[in-house]
Amino acid sequence: MNIAKALLKESLVIASLCAFCACGSDSNSQSSDNNGSDPESSVSSEEPNSSADADETVSSSSVALILSFEEEMARDSLFVQASADTGFSTIESVYQNLAADERVVFLIRHAQRIAKTTKEATLVYGGIVQSQKVGEKLASDEPFAYGHTDFVRTQQTAENIAIGRGEEFPGSIVIPELTENWYIKDSEKIALYDSLYRPSMVYSQWAYNNEYSDAFYDLKERCVRAITELILPNISQTTRVNIFVSHDMFIGPLTVYCTNKKVNRLRFAETEKWVYYVSGLAIVIKPNGERRYIPIDGVEYGT
């Protein structure tokens, strides 16, 4: 069964469940919050006034209410299998080939920073240039939405991408969870492994080979939760293109998972390469909720 047929079958089952649930006249209908908050936190006070309500098209937010997390993981496996790229595409090619009814999240690593790794560490001049070059590649009259972690360098990267586009920075949302801490189960063991090996090696070997797994949560579970709980709920409801700026240790394992471990560059033990500055992952979203994952490079050079 191909991905389209599998999703169609799933949609028919979900639509049937929604129609069944809508038949109860004593319960209020639930609606999702368009600003990306938990759909279950927004409950409509209006009673259905017509039987036609049960026949309305099921929205992606309604699907999120019905699917269990196990079902969401199974659904995402279809997207991963269809996204098993071995290499990286340019960020501009993904943008240029985006269909009019598709949306995209460009999840990228921040640009080149100073030697410090604290939250206050800033971009170097070369990082400012990198960020603006990415913006130049994405120049258009279309407004973008921006998000980043609570690190100065990620916000600076987002701001300079907007400058490169010739766009007045529209403001941004802060998503502090988009860091390596999302994957860590035992911080003491991580500290030990990082003291013995390069962190890039540790995260790469975990993502590809499940080594050092006593320090981490399950890769698939955390990656699906990252997509469905951190990334998708925070995308703009009014723009097609979102740029979220994060960190290499968050993006690397996610990219390995989303390509079904087929992407080759991030095999640090073999390539001695990891996530380049302003490189990362594009998440392209179709109107029916189907997703595809594409590794991307923001510029022609990296770390």
Description:
The chain is an alpha/beta fold and 303 residues long. It folds into two domains: 65 residues, no CATH class; 213 residues, 3-Layer(aba) Sandwich (Rossmann fold), CATH 3.40.50. It is 40% helix and 12% strand. It has eleven helices and seven strands. A seven-stranded mixed beta sheet has the order 1-7-6-2-5-3-4. α6 links the parallel β3 and β4. α5 packs across α6 and α8 runs parallel beside α10. The chain starts with a helix and ends in a 6-residue tail after the last strand. About 19% of the residues have low confidence.
Structure at a glance:
With 303 residues, the protein is of the alpha/beta class. It has helices at residues 3-22, 60-66, 69-81, 91-96, 125-137, 152-165, 187-196, 199-209, 219-231, 248-258, 268-271; strands spanning 89-90, 103-109, 144-148, 173-174, 241-246, 279-285, 291-297.
**Main pleated-sheet profile:** 7 strands, mixed
Q: What oligomeric assembly is this protein in? A: single chain
Instruction: Return the domain count.
Output: 2
Strand content: 5-15%
Radius of gyration: 20 Å
Q: How many β-strands, per DSSP?
A: 7
Shape: globular
Q: What is the overall pLDDT average? A: 84
CATH architecture annotation of the largest domain: 3-Layer(aba) Sandwich
What is the N-to-C order of secondary-structure elements (H for helix, E for strand)?
HHHEHEHEHEHHHEHHEE
Which regions are unreliable across 5 or more consecutive residues at pLDDT < 50? Answer: 8-65
The CATH class name of the largest domain reads Alpha Beta
CATH H-level superfamily title of the largest domain:
Phosphoglycerate mutase-like
CATH topology of the largest domain: Rossmann fold
